[in-house]
Amino acid sequence: MPDILISENLNGLAIDALESKFEVRRLPDLWKDPAALSAQIKDCRALIVRNQTRVTSELLAAASRLVVVGRAGVGLDNIDVEGAGKAGVIITYAPEQSSISVAEFAIGLMLSLARMIPRATFETKSGQWNRQSLVGSELYGKTLGIIGAGKIGYLTAKRAQSFGMKIVAYDPFINPDSVLLRELSADLVELDDMLALSDVVSCHIPVTRETRGLLDRRRLRQMKSTAFLVNTARGEIVNEKHLVEALKDGMIAGAAVDVRSCEPPLRGELEELHNVILTPHIAAFTIEAQKRVVRAVCEDVVRVLEGKRPHNAVHCPIAWESPNAS
User: What is each CA distance from 214 to 53, 200, 223, 249, 257, in whole angstroms?
Assistant: First the structure.
């Protein structure tokens, strides 16, 4: 009878260390089969997932011995957090461990858009030498609009400052007197104003009822026709159909999209556009970030199974309330 079930592809020294203390069952493709997942989890005390496993109320009901779910990442949209709370299941995650990698990746996408690096690479490898058609633009002196001024948004903006970019931010949950905003010399503005002011818009918010479809046709029209959109947060934040329209009609100059509303996505119009960069949800996928993420989640799962307080918990029983809970 396994103590810990791992339903996605997770590896590393931290996972190996779990096996020295507990009976661990690794089934990297289990997330694809909800029925098999329900059967496997029945007697497990812990479940470790990435973003593919759907931890639903039905799955929680099937997991009679479950006490903790470890999410190897920051997003929680694949987990019924409220249902877990009612079931007395602790949710641990890695809220900051991949932040630097995501911020660096967002900056890389901005540079790639501004200098047309993917297109230049493809054409040059194809034997072309089209220098005159590859005249890009600088980030220097441009305005970066940050949607979501949390840890990743802050780190992205901080790095953009080194390119001489001005920062404006939209975040209805941040205090206007935030020290982080002051460090960035950032103006906190309403969303429509931020979109109109920005040369690059970068998304760093979770998907919620309020943020789903936040960037729709009306809001994309608020952007400059020369502006770029970068999304390394969640695909559902941007209405993909409306984004295709905006890119085809010249409402915006380009977009870089690392996340999709359905992953992996079916091939569609977005894949056919020359002014969009598409990557397969890899912003957090660096050697360093994944080591930190997996280690943090494994350590917290162990702490819970040993009756100790986890460091990064979404919620805990009152007696274990974590100072880092959010």
Answer: 25, 17, 14, 20, 15
If asked whether residues 112 and 214 sit together in one domain, one would say yes
Domain housing 152? 99-278
Q: pLDDT over 70 for what percent of the chain?
A: 96
Domain co-membership, 271 together with 291: no
- 3-state class (DSSP) for residue 84: helix
Say yes or no: 105 and 234 in one domain.
yes
**What is the reported pTM?**
0.90
Active-site positions read 234, 263, 281
Q: Which pLDDT score is estimated for 178? A: 87
Helix 287-305 × helix 99-115 angle, to 10°: 150
Find the mean pLDDT for residues 200-221.
96
Residue 325 in domain = no
pLDDT of residue 236: 96
